[in-house]
Amino acid sequence: MLVEPALRRTKTSAVVVEYVHREIFDGRLRSGDRVDVERISVALDVSPTPVREALVLLERDGLVATRVHRAAFVQHFDARTLRADFHVLGLLSGVAAARVAMDHDAGVVAQLRDLLDELAASEAAPARRHDLAVEIVRVQHLAGATPRLLAELRGLGGFLQWAAHQSDRRAHDEIVAEHQRVIDAIAAGDTRQASATWLADARAAAEAVIGELTRRGVLRADGTNAATT
Question: How far apart, in Å, do the first and last CA atoms of the chain sit?
Answer without folding.
Answer: 27
